[in-house]
Design goal:
about 290 residues; alpha/beta; TIM Barrel; two-stranded antiparallel ribbon; 12 helices; 10 strands; globular
């Protein structure tokens, strides 16, 4: 169910508000490019600066615009378990295919706290749950043993977006939870993660190159690692450019240069520096994405 390429889609803004017309166009672009699904209201979607009402409206709109043609996994995580439950129930009610739950941030819970947090949310809904492990953003790591407990005790916790950067940890996850769907949370590690049993990626890069990311994942799934390796190295410089500053600053800047959407961000996210903007422009030009 989870094999494939998923876009951690940006939330476009215009005059300080969510630009739903552009959001629809971006989702249509993803569908036409062959992406498996989208993940609205994640890190790339600037969920941390969306109001509760905006968060609900973005998820509702994503389902509406996807029209059942591609999957929608809504970002519904929070550092408040009660709030995460509300968001997750809302996502289920409006027709999402599943939810992506980032670990509680700032609180720094223990492994037992993480276990209880995720279990409480999973038990409140029936749709699939993807755990989102990104210690660099949350200050906590979901350890493989905790993931194993959760997959054993909560039948709808079936996948993990791994952005720890540690292939050792991901291997341990697959050893302890062999049935779990392992999704790369880093574009630069899509091929390595899939080579150890991963089934796809939740990608930032696919905001600008959805077809290429989908092709890479599909090539690996078909077992053609030689061709996939060539694709990986071809995309690698562009992947690194997407993270020259904090995500989603570079990808939104790139999308504005490509005419896909405004580069507007919400504070405390700010515009890309002049130097990095020029570097990004050069990379995009080298790929023929802009003139």
């Amino acid at each position: 169910m989870f094999s494939g390429s998923y876009t951690a889609i940006v939330t476009p803004f215009k005059n300080g508000k969510v630009d739903f017309d552009t959001f629809e166009k971006l989702i249509e672009m993803q569908y036409k490019a062959g992406i498996t699904g989208i993940v609205p209201c994640g890190t790339t979607g600037e969920s941390a600066t969306l109001s509760h009402q905006e968060h609900d409206e973005v998820i509702e709109s994503a389902v509406k615009f996807a029209k059942g043609r591609i999957k929608v996994f809504a970002g519904t995580g929070s550092n408040s378990t009660v709030e995460a439950i509300r968001l997750s129930k809302h996502a289920e009610e409006v027709g999402c295919d599943g939810v992506l739950l980032v670990s509680p941030y700032y609180n720094k819970p223990t492994q037992q706290g993480l276990y209880l947090h995720y279990k409480e949310i999973a038990n409140s809904i029936k749709i699939p749950v993807i755990l989102y492990n990104i210690q660099g953003r949350t200050s906590v790591n979901i350890e493989p043993k905790t993931i194993a407990r959760l997959t054993k005790d909560c039948k709808n916790i079936v996948a993990v977006k791994e952005a720890s950067g540690s292939l050792d940890q991901m291997s341990q996850i697959k050893i302890l939870s062999p049935e779990i769907y392992l999704l790369s949370g880093d574009d630069s590690l899509t091929l390595p993660v899939m080579s150890i049993g991963g089934c796809g990626v939740i990608s930032v890069l696919s905001n600008i190159l959805p077809e290429e990311v989908a092709d890479l994942v599909n090539t690996v799934l078909k077992g053609d690692l030689k061709k996939a390796s060539e694709m990986h190295y071809k995309l690698f410089p562009l992947v690194k450019a997407m993270f020259m500053e904090t995500n989603p600053i570079p990808v939104k800047a790139a999308m504005e240069m490509m005419g896909l959407c405004s580069g507007d961000l919400r504070l405390p996210m700010c515009s890309i520096s002049d130097a990095n903007k020029e570097n990004l422009r050069n990379v995009l030009q080298s790929y023929g994405l802009i003139k």
